[in-house]
Amino acid sequence: MTIFYFTATGNSLAVAKRIGGKLISIPQIIDFNNLHYKDDVIGVVFPVYWWNLPKMVHHFFDKVSFDANYIFAISTNGSSAGGEMVSLQIQAKKNGYSFAYTNHILMLDNYLPAYDMGTQIERLPKKHVTEHRRGISKFIYSYKTYSVIQRRLG
Which residues contact residue 132 at a Cβ distance below 8 angstroms, ignoring those fewer than 6 apart? Predict the structure, then answer.
């Protein structure tokens, strides 16, 4: 299993580490010319920035191609996810693949100009991060198909 991750505060890296596998930092490879990766399972973990993909992740998906039996994406967010998985699936389709599993994990809202970290830490137990992360890992290791997009659309 290979997992690509983008993290600023460490939330996405923590999730990627808990899932396991070979971890590759997106910023460390973004300027490489040949971004073609092959593995049985490939995943991407990244934060949600203003209800969408961070620019770095968007640029990564413009350049990368995957060859895998199972591809998944997990986003981390503080309060609500947005259209990040819709954007992700559109970019994947342009590159000839799709994600078998997409989901998000609620974590700390850590945009410091807007949120008090003490309050966020107090609210963290109600977000059930550990349980959610375990459930996601179980789904991934079982090769389950799931789309957070379809769940939202009904």
Answer: 105, 106
Alpha helices (H) along 20-112: 26-29, 55-63, 84-94
Taking CA atoms, 75 is separated from 14, 84, 91, in Å, by 12, 8, 15
Helix, strand, coil share of the chain (percent; to 5): 40, 25, 35
Domains of the chain: 2-153 (3.40.50.360)
**Is the whole-model pTM more than 0.90?**
no
Q: pLDDT tens-digit profile of 108-148?
A: 665 555 555 566 556 655 545 666 667 788 888 888 887 77
DSSP structural state of residue 109: -
- Cα R_g (the chain), whole angstroms: 15
Considering the chain, what is the average pLDDT of its residues?
Answer: 81
How is residue 48 annotated by DSSP?
-
Question: For residues 69 and 27, what is the distance between their CA atoms, to the nearest angstrom?
Answer: 25
Q: Quick count: other Cβ atoms within 10 Å of Cβ 96? A: 9
d(CA 2, CA 16): 10
In one-letter notation, the amino acid at residue 81 is A
Q: Which helix (H) or strand (E) holds 74?
A: strand 70-77
Q: Check if the beta carbon of residue 5 is closer than 8 Å to that of residue 64.
A: no
